[in-house]
Amino acid sequence: MSSLPPWLAQLLPILILLGAIALVLARLPKVELGHTDAFRRRRFYNWFPLGMTYAFLYMGRYNVNVATSALGSRTTNADFGTIFFWGTLVYGFAFLLNGPLTDRLGGRKTILMSAAGSAVANVAMGAVVYAVVTQDWQPPGGLVATLSFLYAVNMYFQSFGAVSIVKVNASWFHVRERGQLGGVFGILISLGVYFAYDWSRLVVQAAPVYWVFFVPAAILAAFLVLDFFVIRDTPGQTGHPDFDTADASSGETGPQLGVWPVFKRMMSNRTIIVILCIEFCSGFMRNAIMQWYPKFAKSTGIGEGFVAANWGMLLCVAGITGGMFAGVISDRVFDSRRGPVSAVLYAGMSLGAVATLFLLDSAALGWTVIFMSLCVIGVHGMLSGTASMDFGGKKNAGLAVGIIDGAVYAGTALQSILLGSILPAGDLAKTPGNWGNWPLAMLPLSFLGLVLATRVWNAKPQPKGASLPTAAPVPSPSDAAPASRTGTGG
């Protein structure tokens, strides 16, 4: 391993893990829905570039963490908190517009808009940092205000990413296949985090800091071209038959409802309200871990330790493991229910939050927060990546994931501004014991998420009854997603 290039040495464990997961999944009993091999191949060609675009959107999103650290004395932890707060606030509110817009335009068009807009915004941030670093230029209003504005623009276009991937995949995957799809969603998030942290760190080690913005912009531009030619919204657009996905839109043969009627229907649904609250907690927890452990490690002098130095790779491995664990047990153990999986993972997160309080001075802290990341990425894949399809249905998947991911980033915005203001700075940040507010802030959210997850233990989507033309025999009531009082009524 020591003779390998650094990027390959970090990537190799991820590739080995992905290979092992592929082998295990290949040996699991198949969910037989009548899909042909040709359909499965075309579906892979559809979701894989779409998913990799989403992963590299993460690189163009969380690169700001690496950039603000690399800028040294030009930015502080509080400055990062401010920049990230405005970006996540815009990201959350953008879903109110972009979710319905994705339902109207289709996921293919909006993923193209997302890649293009984020690429341009990253180029603009790179240009500003270039001028600051090389010309000692002072932007009007200051560097923090300028980066906050551009990062907010970036995050507006970023908000199309999750909505687009869920919207497209909702037409290609049956409810009984979506647990493993949620695991794949977790893998994509994990790869994106790996690209954002470890690839970005390699970039700033090999080149000036502004390249941390230019590199993801170039990659997104390349995927923009690929996606244009490959991605299609439905199987029917590729010559394969559309089929009944047995989600909350199943049996709806009328015209697309307006945004307000769909919004009112979703917001009157108890299950969706509880999922929103769980995902608010997930947004807080995910970014309280992912964004602040690197800051903790650098401030306390353990930035070259194994966990901190390989943060992106370890997060990726943890996220892949958590995502696939959640997906497989959801479909294979819990009959395609998402609530039990979320409760199991939130229990693990709660234990981790308690342990963190006592491990600030211990080398075990890094491994504890990695375990917590495994849990939170698994939850996020199940609820934002899968339950949004189930309970929104393929017709309204954009609005559903918009609402749910909006809650995620409301939690993210809260943790960003809260932790940015209560965590130590300067010389105080060098002492691990002064970071006690960090686990204390996570404790109530982790336990609240656990309690809420138990409230949707039996929730499944409620199809409307009528059936669309299928590519396979209609599953029996024991196989398909049954009607439930907690499903989206119509």
Q: What's this, in brief?
A:
It contains 16 helices and no strands. With 490 residues, the chain is mainly alpha-helical.
Quaternary status of these chains?
Answer: single chain
Q: Cα distance, first to last residue?
A: 57 Å
Content-based structural category:
mainly alpha
Count of β-strands: 0
Look at the structure and give the mean pLDDT. 81
- Please report which band the strand proportion falls in: under 5%, 5-15%, 15-25%, 25-35%, 35-45% or over 45%: under 5%
How many H/I helical runs? 16
Gyration radius, in Å: 22 Å
Shape: globular
- Unreliable stretches: 465-490
- SSE ordering: HHHHHHHHHHHHHHHH
Helix content class? over 70%
- Give the biggest beta sheet: none
Map the helices and strands:
Elements: H1 6-27, H2 37-70, H3 77-105, H4 107-135, H5 143-170, H6 178-206, H7 211-230, H8 259-267, H9 270-290, H10 292-300, H11 306-309, H12 311-332, H13 339-358, H14 364-392, H15 397-422, H16 437-454
Could you explain how this protein is built, in words?
The protein has 490 residues and is mainly alpha-helical. The chain is 71% helix and 0% strand. The protein is built from 16 helices and no strands. It has helices at 6-27, 37-70, 77-105, 107-135, 143-170, 178-206, 211-230, 259-267, 270-290, 292-300, 306-309, 311-332, 339-358, 364-392, 397-422, 437-454. Helix 2 runs parallel beside helix 4 and helix 5 (143-170) crosses helix 14. The termini are far apart. The model is unreliable at 465-490 (pLDDT under 50).
